Amino acid sequence: MDEELVTELFGETMTLPWKFIVEWITPSEGVIRPIGKVYVSSSSKYQEYLITELADLGKSLILDGKVQSSVSDEFWYHEALVHPTMLSHPNPRRVLIIGGGEGATAREVLKHCSVKEVMMVDLDYEVVKSCREYFGELHQGSFYDPRFELIISDGRVFVESLSKLFDVIIVDVVDPIEGGPATALYTEEFYRALKRILASNGIFVTQAVSPSLYPRIHAIIRNTVTRVFRKVSSYITYVRSYNGLWGFVAGSDKYNPADLTKEEIEKRLSTRLCGKLKFYDSSTHQWMFNIPKPIRETLSRIKEYATDSNKATLQV
Amino acid sequence: MDEELVTELFGETMTLPWKFIVEWITPSEGVIRPIGKVYVSSSSKYQEYLITELADLGKSLILDGKVQSSVSDEFWYHEALVHPTMLSHPNPRRVLIIGGGEGATAREVLKHCSVKEVMMVDLDYEVVKSCREYFGELHQGSFYDPRFELIISDGRVFVESLSKLFDVIIVDVVDPIEGGPATALYTEEFYRALKRILASNGIFVTQAVSPSLYPRIHAIIRNTVTRVFRKVSSYITYVRSYNGLWGFVAGSDKYNPADLTKEEIEKRLSTRLCGKLKFYDSSTHQWMFNIPKPIRETLSRIKEYATDSNKATLQV
Amino acid sequence: MDEELVTELFGETMTLPWKFIVEWITPSEGVIRPIGKVYVSSSSKYQEYLITELADLGKSLILDGKVQSSVSDEFWYHEALVHPTMLSHPNPRRVLIIGGGEGATAREVLKHCSVKEVMMVDLDYEVVKSCREYFGELHQGSFYDPRFELIISDGRVFVESLSKLFDVIIVDVVDPIEGGPATALYTEEFYRALKRILASNGIFVTQAVSPSLYPRIHAIIRNTVTRVFRKVSSYITYVRSYNGLWGFVAGSDKYNPADLTKEEIEKRLSTRLCGKLKFYDSSTHQWMFNIPKPIRETLSRIKEYATDSNKATLQV
Amino acid sequence: MDEELVTELFGETMTLPWKFIVEWITPSEGVIRPIGKVYVSSSSKYQEYLITELADLGKSLILDGKVQSSVSDEFWYHEALVHPTMLSHPNPRRVLIIGGGEGATAREVLKHCSVKEVMMVDLDYEVVKSCREYFGELHQGSFYDPRFELIISDGRVFVESLSKLFDVIIVDVVDPIEGGPATALYTEEFYRALKRILASNGIFVTQAVSPSLYPRIHAIIRNTVTRVFRKVSSYITYVRSYNGLWGFVAGSDKYNPADLTKEEIEKRLSTRLCGKLKFYDSSTHQWMFNIPKPIRETLSRIKEYATDSNKATLQV
């Protein structure tokens, strides 16, 4: 057995790892990972949060037992969330982010030279502050960009009270866990509230859970968006830190990222970006928008949608 | 908490699950899954094998601690392995499978109406026999198809001794684990031996480990195939039972599955198939052959290749 | 790190262990141990059984997820169960064992030269047969001793149908797990049935779960025995394979093992034994019958007892 | 399944537990326990420390992955460590504690009315301070008793520099883990240094690891003490939080706690104690000093002892 493996397992002092997190994919399937250095570990009013080194994933943010971002592959998620929608719009200047506490979604938005204003509305000041202070690898300064504005508020309430218009709205909040803080951000009423503050040629995208692990929830999000917007696309990426495929749903009355050709994507990337991308390009776009058949078929069989009085929620 | 969840966790007799497998993704990251009904559990001369129910995955074959096939998603693997290559060839009649003990690779090959002969060479009679007897969900009768022939032999030795020619050769063997039975099936010398028994317009494909978890090994396989064949493609699928993305490498002097257009794929599928597919179609093909940028870039930095005297091996 | 340790952890082929059992001490505290060579693994009508090598414990019998006996320390249990009671009786000739499927309780009984007849009544022929065939380390031939007789029957039914008398009765059955096969073997009605077939100067003993982990159940067994016999003692041992202290309750109208002096024990051991003991002697006896204060006090506060219509059951 | 159990497993928000510690009993056998509320979690110069709620054990101090004290049963350890030795001495006035950072050993010492002075020497100010601040359940004010004095120092160095004499010396330090902070506190040279500051009728005791799990280390401690003191006793308790039996070694030229009769113990307890005990009394004493035969026999076969140049160390 090579030395490195021993050291990895036993550490330098020859002791076995003894602190672990288990991320439950289902109530009976879990991924176990040793915890290394802990940067911050506490509970806010809304959730338990932990910024720590995790074996293999590296420095990670964990909320209520779910890895939200790890340095090893957060860009597979954040770039997938941001760029297809941003590039679909001809000239995105005003962008609203609901959630996005790590600052990494803002970081990607700010790479688009056209952007004049990024407003980010997050519920949990403690988590935002901890990420800003302890997790510079994620935000890379986006919190201090002059175009960036942070609002601490309930996303739903704030959206309903706003009167200005945005070109792009990005919903980057935790999964609709039963009893969690985000279930009201996945309903038809919420999407209608979003549409009210979206320019008529605006476009919106939301993270939409894993379509392979939780196809019912993903389909419901897509179906719900479809009730509000004329052009809707599901698309997927893979995030190792999330233990599988991950889904998104984009909605607009005008634009559909699925319509972008490889050529058009490369052209826009080369003219509209003021920062480098690690994940997204035209091939990656094809990979994300060509959903494999078993997922397409499973999703097509689900007809439900979510309203405030009939929410769809996850139980792990 | 809903009843179903309780039953899932505790079983009907209210006892907690107590038998588990941990599949180690790395020496410090593992997926833990309860074991249900055991169909067969033994060790052959070459490996330890287990056919059992696994929580969430369903009935599964496990070799030396690695899930090889589970009923929940084996077709994400077997269809990805077989169909791009089979469809690239204009008229595949004689097919050789190295490995493939479950009979599921043969099952997919036999769905192509053109096929006259499938020869499958597997090392481990015990495992083949157990799959044939206890895992009909996988082979679905392929072992008894008149076009099918089973040879129990070391794949390397057998290939070097054969003189007939095949249209398609498919390598479906376990990963090149250090000390495991398959390390000699991933070297330049082996691929040259394969080429000797491949028709001049033939095409070959091998499973090629996870390009995200073990990019060095995947790149080495691709680089090694490139030394022997003129047209080479890496492509990927996702297999939840394998805990991530999974890779393949196809090689030929004549055909490249990456060149198939969506239209051509749909046309060939509609005319050449004698059985239904659950995973593969033209969109799935696009998904598989558009590899996301971070994997492409990682692979492109690795220049090594494997020979008999300088094998590349995995350590978990 | 020493070589032995590496081999222990990784096996000779350098792979990490991947099959485990978790023994749940409570619903949230479990001991995890890798499984080695499996001798037999199946389910009978009554329970799931497994004879396997366990890391650190060695060859072990596991019923429904609970280690029943491991070669490393089964004598801490079996000698503790058998000898205090056998030695208390002046001349034990006829002995009845309820349960005792491994044959190890019979093995200890047969070490007493006075014994002419051992009748063992076990419910589960499959488990008895598997132990007899695969676990000679436990029974050491007791199944083939001419004084030994095996009856496959429900212990409760059999006891109620018997008319002969025994000098000593030993109850060696699984814990009274809710829904398990042994809950009717811990009630007042059962103890009265036992008393009917016990000689007037006979003595009885039952395993009585862990008094530290499950004090309520242990106390209920003691209280229930007290309703039927005039002289009753709780005593304890430690069994690493059971993850803690373990308890027994002896009952008789005539004898109390707690009254035996060190001198008397040594005298009887030296004159009445026809086999060697590894665990029990007069110091061990003192250790077992001097129960530490916190257990005594906890037990003294529990006044419940068990009847057929009001059984006491464990939930893990 | 009862409600309580569900809540215990899932918490009130219905999520599965996701933070765990695994305490490794051996490199391949571990006890897994969910972590609840964390009071403090940090690393000092010497060790990693954690004060947290643990499922089933309650509030606990963990050093380098080993549970040191939990509210559920710390008195099984601390009373076992302190009282046999304190009671053996006719009139203990000056007591030295090496280690004992939680303040619980001092708490027990201060229950003896004769005590005029308790000096506690601990290496790790951070841990002592954290216990003093966050773990009042353990020290119960002992840190603020006017008879108590805290010295932060290396125990070995301090002992070698002292010139005053003590009636009783108690060594309450972590196990001699390879590379850990306490290996120099288990050698012949250390015990000779202790003897120099022990009154001629003084008595000393040290914690001495688990004699069942690590018999070689326990025997070496006993053998080493035997080289320095004329009267030496091994004795044992059980500590669930330590996953098994636990051992101690007492040494003196004058007194041996093993010689105390039940009557003498009860008499001294009733006249010399100024506080209540939960664990120790004369029956508990008999339980502790009658070591079961297999441990006695294993220990008797080990002849090694430890010196500064030939230390005995544990590897987990």
SSE arrangement:
Four copies of one chain form a homotetramer.
Chain A: H1 3-10, E1 19-26, E2 29-43, E3 48-54, E4 58-63, E5 66-70, H2 74-88, E6 94-99, H3 104-109, E7 117-122, H4 125-134, H5 136-139, E8 148-152, H6 155-161, E9 166-172, H7 188-196, E10 198-207, H8 215-226, E11 231-239, E12 244-252, H9 262-272, H10 282-289, H11 293-300
Parallel strand pairs in A: 6-7, 6-9, 7-8, 9-10
Antiparallel strand pairs in A: 1-2, 2-3, 3-4, 4-5, 10-12, 11-12
Helix pairs in contact in A: 8-11, 9-10
Largest interface, C-beta within 8 A: A-B, 49 and 49 residues
For the largest sheet of chain A, list the strands in their spatial order.
8-7-6-9-10-12-11
Percent of residues in helices of chain A comes to: 25-40%
The pLDDT mean of chain A sits at 93
**CATH topology tier name of the largest domain in chain A:** Rossmann fold
Shape descriptor of chain A = globular
Estimate what percentage of residues of chain A fall within beta strands.
Answer: 25-35%
The CATH superfamily title of the largest domain in chain A: Vaccinia Virus protein VP39
Derived structural class of chain A = alpha/beta
* Count of DSSP-assigned helices of chain A: 11
Number of domains of chain A: 2
Run of helices and strands of chain A: HEEEEEHEHEHHEHEHEHEEHHH
CATH class of the largest domain in chain A equals Alpha Beta
What are the low-pLDDT stretches of chain A, counting only 5+ consecutive residues below 50? 1-14
Radius of gyration of chain A: 19 Å
Oligomer: homotetramer
